[in-house]
Each structure stands twice: as C-alpha cells, then as structure tokens.
Amino acid sequence: MAIRVRAEAFTYVAHALGVVAAVMVLVWCIHFRGGLAFHSQTNKNLIFNIHPVLMLIGFIIIGGEAIIAYKAIPGRKEVKKVIHLVLHAIALIVGIVGIYAAFKYHNESNIANLYSFHSWLGIGTICLYGIQWVYGFLVFFFPGGPQTLRSESLPWHVVFGLFVYILALSTAVLGFLEKLTFLQSSGLAKYGPEAFLVNFTSIVTILFGAFIVLTAISSPPGVTDDFNYSAIYNTNISWRCVLLEFKSLLICPN
Ligand code: HEM
Are 73 and 83 in contact (CB under 8 A)? Predict the structure, then answer.
C-alpha cells in the first residue's frame, strides 16, 4: 500500500506550530518567570531563562525550518542548499549560546554541571548536530565530494539528520519536564496556569517536530532534483518504501 502525500500542506502546519511554540516559551519565560538577562547580580534565574528560549526558538524551530527548507521554499536547488546550511548554522550557534547560558546560570548559582540525563543528551545532541553540519558542508557544499560519495552519503545524511533532530526534540521536552518538576517541588501549583503552559509547550514542540519529520519524508513541491530530501523517495512518499528503507539499510526498491 502506498500513501501519496505532498509536502506543502505539512510545511504550513509546521510554520504555524513553530510560531505558537515560540510565543508560548516567551510568555512562560518573560511573563511567568520574570524575564531574560545574560547578566544579573540579583536574580540568576533570569540567566537560566535564556536557555529554554534559545534552545526552543533557535535550536528546535530554526533547525526544523532548516530541515524543511528544500520543501518549503520555492526556487533553485543551489539557493535552497545555501538556505538549508545557513539556517542549520544559525540553529547550531544559537544552541551553543543557549547551552552556555545554562552553564553560566549553574556556575554563578553554585549548582553542579552535567548531572542530569537531560544535560547528557543535550551535549550528545549538539555534538552530533555539529558533526552532521561539518560533514554535510564538506561533502555537499565546499569543497564538495566526488559524485559517488555525494549520492551514497545523501540517504545517510537524511536519516542521521532526522535521528539527531528527534534527539533534540526529546532533549527539549525532557528539559521542560525537568524544570517544571523542579518548580513543582518548590511549591508551584500542579494544576496552575504555568504548569499547563509548560506542558502544552511540550505538546506543541512534539507536534512541530512531527510535522517537520513528515514534511522531510513527503513529496516536494514541483520537480525533484538529485540533492534534496526527495532523492530517496523520488516524487511520492511510499510508507512501504520508508519501512523497507530502514529495514534494508536504506536500499530503496524503486
Ligand atoms: C535541544 C534543546 C536543549 C539542549 C541541547 C539542552 C542542553 C542542556 C545542557 C547541556 C545542560 C547542562 C548545563 C549544565 O550542566 O550546566 C542543560 C541544562 C538544563 N536545561 Fe536544557 N537543553 C535543551 C532544552 C531545554 C529546554 C527547552 C528546557 C526547558 C526549561 C531545558 C531545561 C534545562 C534545565 C532545567 C537545566 C538545568 C538542570 C540540568 O542540568 O539538567 N533545556 N540543558
């Protein structure tokens, strides 16, 4: 059975969910948590608040938009490739600054570093993201690998990229859960508006990620080319093909 779905519809839903998630995390950190600051002598929590804002808006949302750039933006392949790698670079840099903010908050508040599963997963994810970006840059952009290496690397680039992105989503949701648990242990109402806001931000984040992945594996608008995500699937998504891809180590029967 083959289900044929075009990417455009998914991209609109993904953009809308990204805007909603960004607004929610800003309302949480600014309205409920007191605001954002890189330096504060009196309230170190303001330094921490930079972390979820930059990780969600920078790493997850801009990173997600980078993934779907080939499907969401009309135009030539070369232009889309540059937008894809630039958005990923922005996501990576903003993600590194966001992690720096978490370390700064810990160090200035005398809290231990890297003790939680969230932090381990976070460091692993950002390292894999960086490796994926550098490999993609060298092989597909500059200086660019030989044709055989590019075509053999492409399916791995797509699957590994989506794997790292799902790791990033998991890390972010764990982060929301961890912070909310800390706050509830210190007296925050379990069914209060802030708790609902944080939990719904996690839900919207997961939905956003789901639509990014759906967009990435669905049909591109217009004609396909050799170096976009559609290279694996040609013009139509086939779920049987997707399953066979994973089962037979990315050898598509088409
Ligand atoms: C993919 C996105 C994210 C990554 C890669 C990430 C990564 C990290 C890292 C590496 C640390 C350790 C800092 C240290 O030990 O000094 C950390 C701390 C923390 N993060 Fe995140 N984070 C992400 C998103 C979030 C989000 C959305 C929240 C929501 C509030 C959050 C909440 C926390 C909390 C509460 C800590 C301090 C406690 C701990 O170290 O686990 N994180 N994060």
Answer: yes
The CATH number that domain 7-247 falls under is 1.20.120.1770
Residue 194 in tokens: 């802030």
Residue ranges per structural domain of the chain: 7-247
Instruction: Write the residue with the smallest CA distance to atom 20 of ligand 1.
Output: 175
117-136 vs 147-185: helix crossing angle, rounded to 10: 160
Residue 101 Cβ < 6 Å to ligand 1: no
- Cβ–ligand 1 contact at 49 (below 6 Å): no
How far is the C-alpha of 140 from the C-alpha of 29, rounded, in Å? 38
Q: What is the pLDDT of residues 23-71, one digit of tens each?
A: 999 999 999 999 999 999 999 999 999 999 999 999 999 999 999 999 9
Quick: pLDDT tens for 144-166.
Answer: 999 999 999 999 999 999 999 99
